[in-house]
Specification:
The chain is of the alpha+beta class. The chain has seven helices and six strands. It is globular and about 100 Å long. About 3% of the residues have low confidence.
C-alpha cells in the first residue's frame, strides 16, 4: 500500500519548469561574436619589418596607417617603450584551434576567444598590440592598459584609423581587450576605409568602440536657402560744376 501511495504521489507531482534559455541573437552573432569572412591571400601583406613578434600579415590598406602610427610612437618620448604586433591576421582553421584549446565550456571560451569564422582577425584589419618592455605584464592581459605606450595608443591610435573593438564593460559581452584594435580608416574617404567600415558595420552600430572613429557630421539641407539680399548700388553724387 505504501508503495502504491508513493507511486500516486509521484504521478501527481508537478513537472519541473524547464530552465530558461538565453535569447538567440537576431544579428547573426555566435556566442557574442559577429560572423566575418576571411581576407583573400592576395589582400594581405607582411607588416612593417620588426613589428611582429611572430609572423604578422595585415590588409594592404592598413599598412600605410600602421607605418605612420609606429613612426609617431617612436618619435614621442611619452610612449616609454616600443609598440609591437602580437597577433595579426588569423586564418579560420587557426582560429578554430585557438578556440578549441580554451577550455571545455564554449560560452566561457568565447569571452576571450571568438569561434572560428567569427573573429575580427580573419578580416586582416585587426591587430593585437604588445608593448616592449612589458614591465612584468604578460601579453594580452588587462595590465597592459597602465603602460605608457598603451595610454599613448588610446590617445593617438584613432588619428591613424584604429579603434578599440572591446572597451571595458562592453555590452557585447567580450573580455576587455586594451590590446585589440581594428582599422577602419581615419576618414570615410581614406583608401580602403569604406570596405573596412562595411565589414564592421553591425558591430560598430550595436556596440560602439571606445575610443572609436565615427563619420563626420552630415549636414542635410531641408529647404532651399533664401536668396541673398543684394543692396542697390549707391546713387551717383552730383558734383559742383567747374567754372570755365
Amino acid at each position: 500500500m505504501l508503495a502504491l501511495l508513493s507511486l500516486v504521489a509521484l504521478t501527481q507531482a508537478p513537472l519541473a519548469a524547464p530552465a530558461p534559455q538565453p535569447p538567440v541573437p537576431t544579428d547573426g552573432r555566435l556566442l557574442g561574436h559577429f560572423p566575418y569572412g576571411e581576407a583573400a591571400a592576395s589582400e594581405l601583406v607582411d607588416a612593417p619589418p620588426g613589428f611582429g613578434l611572430h609572423a604578422c600579415r595585415i590588409r594592404r590598406d592598413v599598412y600605410p596607417d600602421l607605418v605612420r602610427l609606429l613612426a609617431a610612437a617612436a618619435a614621442d618620448p611619452r610612449t616609454g617603450g616600443t609598440i609591437r604586433g602580437l597577433s595579426c591576421h588569423r586564418s579560420i582553421p587557426r582560429q578554430g584551434g585557438l578556440f578549441r584549446s580554451g577550455g571545455d565550456d564554449a560560452a566561457d571560451r568565447a569571452i576571450s576567444v571568438a569561434p572560428p569564422g567569427h573573429t575580427e582577425h580573419s578580416t586582416g584589419y585587426a591587430i593585437d598590440f604588445a608593448i616592449r618592455p612589458a614591465a612584468g605584464c604578460p601579453d594580452a592581459e588587462a595590465c597592459m592598459a597602465i603602460l605608457p605606450a598603451a595610454r599613448w595608443l588610446r590617445e593617438n591610435a584613432p588619428r591613424y584609423g584604429f579603434e578599440l573593438s572591446f572597451p571595458p564593460g562592453n555590452r557585447q559581452g567580450v573580455k576587455w581587450e586594451p590590446w585589440h584594435w581594428r582599422w577602419v580608416g581615419a576618414s570615410a574617404d581614406a583608401p580602403g576605409a569604406a570596405r573596412a567600415r562595411f565589414t564592421f558595420e553591425k558591430a560598430r552600430a550595436a556596440f560602439p568602440a571606445e575610443p572609436g572613429i565615427y563619420p563626420p557630421l552630415r549636414i542635410v539641407l531641408l529647404r532651399q536657402p533664401d536668396p541673398p539680399v543684394i543692396a542697390p548700388p549707391p546713387a551717383p553724387q552730383k558734383g559742383k560744376r567747374r567754372r570755365r
